[in-house]
Amino acid sequence: MPTEDKPNEGLLTAPEAMQQFFDLLLQGETDLWVELMHEDIVFEFPYAPPGLPPQITGKSAMRAHITTLLTQLQLFEFLDVRMHPTLSPDTLIAEFACRGQAIGTGKPYNQRYISVVQMKQGKIAHYRDYWNPLVVLDAMNGGEAFRSGTSKSST
Length: 155
Known about the structure:
The protein is of the alpha+beta class.
């Protein structure tokens, strides 16, 4: 618990939050994963293709999004993780890759990310996620499976 002498004592740092972010996603622990988020979380996807949300706001919306996402993608591992601290201890830039598979198509999902993570009170408050939309579209046959919330395969 934070004290007056050490206001951030007991709170997650940005690197600790990101490590838990990865671990909990791989374990499929969506409820615990969402607890890493601040109540007013803003998740931005600047390169989201049409039909996918460019921004998600609030924990309940984030829970719905990640629950749907994990019915569409099986995540195997996060790798090549590099965390870059900034001048602000509450902000981190993370570079990483993800290896997985689209459930409905069986196609590989091999994505690279750069994420800007801002913490508030030991929780992730703002997350700007830069990724290649073409990887998603290819893995999910144009993203139709994700947009509809169902798994579809091409036959």
